Amino acid sequence: MDEPSFGQIIAEARRKAGLSQKQLASMVTKENGVPISPQYLNDLEHDRRNPPSEYLITQFARALNIEKDYVMLAAGKVSQDVRAMGVANPQVVEEAFRLFRKDRK
Fold this sequence. Notes:
Elements (H helix, E strand, L loop, with lengths): L5 H11 L4 H7 L10 H8 L8 H11 L3 H7 L5 H5 L5 H15 L1
Helix pairs in contact: 2-3
């Protein structure tokens, strides 16, 4: 079975939270303070748009009470705080993935 997409995760969490697309869209604002549009959210949920920036993903995670790291992974992104931990260092990355895979077994 395939892992859910970013859009599927957002849509499912929104429904579980009992929010309409319009309500959730009003809770997520761009960097200039303007809320995203319900149509943009609809496009995201149906995977018609690429996942948004970390700035917006963070707001989705907060508004929907889901783990940011999970949503970032589904979006195919690495958060700034993780990058700051040494992603540029191949040994750190290899060790992190080795531990992750070991934990998954």
